[in-house]
């Protein structure tokens, strides 16, 4: 007998990211200590926490923009700090969207999106045209295909940065405060593209201060403080988590 979708079959999903007891030092300072976190396929994990708590460093360790000093990080079961591993391959699997967009200023919007897959995945001209059309349509910027980043608004730049990240067909997308550098009127358009992206079935780790957004998209919310994960909060409990003193004083500061 066939199983319909509503039956109570427990789906076992793999961990796309597995972070085990990592430590990261800068000079004499330990900025990540004993951090462990697993993210399953299509799970959306939001990380919150005060400035300097290690959120960016954690994301940067996941795609090897920084190197860990102890522990392990596996992506799709593979140890990304294994000696013989190709760092470009890691950055194809875990792509980052930065606070300050980091678009290539000397390249058109289309080229910004297709450069990575052309170089690393050997896309043909036709595939590359199709890919950029699809993604530009998805982020609502098809008409900007031939524009240069300097002629885009901040919100548009960030939507292009998201399209560029998706072009790699990554296993996981990492967002590091993607709306914090934007004028307030542009935050909504970027959050809405992010929402569509992750709701469409994507594994994501998102650092953000947008609490309403977090409650809407997150499967889990992780609170970091002083280089450690100090709490995990179910999104529906975020407003009630005020009994935890550190979380509550953080939330009071940002709203
Ligand atoms: P968050 O993203 O939560 O604001 P960060 O991960 O940027 O925090 O920073 C965590 C700590 O690591 C801070 O104390 C910061 O000053 C320090 N740090 C981050 N990057 C570097 C670096 N490249 N060199 C030295 N210290 C750094
Ligand atoms: Mg940061």
From the alpha-carbon coordinates, what is the Rg to the nearest angstrom? 19 Å
Q: What bound compounds does this protein have?
A: adenosine-5'-diphosphate, magnesium ion
Main sheet: strands, sense, barrel:
6 strands, mixed
Structural class: alpha/beta
The total of helices stands at 8
Helix content: 25-40%
Spatial strand sequence of the major β-sheet: 6-7-8-3-9-10
* Strand content range: 15-25%
Mean pLDDT: 92
What shape does the CA trace take?
globular
Q: Which spans have pLDDT < 50 for at least 5 consecutive residues?
A: 1-5
The ordered H/E elements are EEEHEEHEHHHEHEHEEH
Tell me the distance between the termini.
52 Å
The count of β-strands is: 10
How would you describe this structure in keywords?
255 residues; 8 helices; 35% helix; 25% strand; globular; binds magnesium ion
Helix-strand blueprint:
Layout: E1 15-26, E2 29-40, E3 44-48, H1 55-62, E4 70-75, E5 78-79, H2 87-93, E6 94-97, H3 109-121, H4 125-138, H5 154-167, E7 172-176, H6 184-199, E8 203-207, H7 211-217, E9 220-225, E10 228-233, H8 245-254
The protein binds adenosine-5'-diphosphate and magnesium ion.
């Amino acid at each position: 007998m066939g199983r319909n979708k509503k039956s109570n079959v427990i789906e076992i999903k793999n961990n796309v990211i597995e972070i085990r007891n990592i430590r990261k030092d800068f000079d004499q300072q330990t900025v990540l200590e004993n951090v462990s976190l697993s993210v399953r396929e299509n799970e959306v994990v939001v990380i919150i926490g005060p400035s300097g708590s290690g959120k960016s460093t954690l994301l940067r360790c996941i795609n090897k923009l920084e190197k860990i000093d102890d522990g392990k990080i596996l992506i799709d079961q593979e140890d990304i700090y294994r000696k013989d591993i190709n760092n470009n391959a890691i950055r194809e699997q875990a792509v980052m969207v930065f606070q300050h967009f980091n678009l290539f200023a000397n390249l058109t919007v289309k080229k910004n999106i297709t450069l990575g897959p052309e170089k690393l995945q050997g896309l043909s001209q036709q595939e590359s045209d199709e890919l950029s059309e699809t993604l530009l349509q998805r982020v609502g910027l098809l008409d900007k295909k031939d524009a240069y980043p300097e002629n885009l608004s901040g919100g548009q730049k960030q939507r292009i940065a998201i399209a560029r990240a998706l072009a790699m067909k990554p296993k996981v997308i990492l967002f590091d405060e993607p709306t914090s550098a934007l004028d307030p009127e542009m935050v909504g358009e970027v959050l809405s593209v992010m929402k569509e992206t992750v709701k469409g079935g994507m594994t994501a780790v998102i650092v953000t201060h947008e609490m309403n957004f977090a409650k809407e998209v997150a499967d889990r919310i992780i609170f970091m403080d002083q280089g450690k994960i100090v709490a995990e909060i179910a999104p529906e409990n975020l407003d009630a988590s005020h009994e935890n003193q550190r979380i509550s004083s953080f939330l009071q500061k940002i709203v």
